[in-house]
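Chapter review. Work through the record for Multi antimicrobial extrusion protein before attempting the end-of-chapter questions.
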Amino acid sequence: MEESVIPMEVEQKTERYNEEEQKHKVTWNGFSEEMKRICVVAGPMVIVISSQYLLQVVSITMVGHLGELYLSSAALAISLASVTGFSLIVSLYSH
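Structure tokens for Multi antimicrobial extrusion protein:
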């Protein structure tokens, strides 16, 4: 298991417990190292989700050049497809 970045509460202040407390103390170096690890894992997920939302924005922008009626129909269709697809994925996941 990985070490926790949350300091442990030590009630008795003896030398042995002070050493253990120093080992689990949060420092800026430890915090920055932990954030680097999290960003390595979460970075690709953030990029994928952002690109999925940007794909919808680009689609709406391109259809917006065709006219107001086309823009409203495309916006309605994209929202309906997103909600329906999300519901389908959640229902498949729950079974």
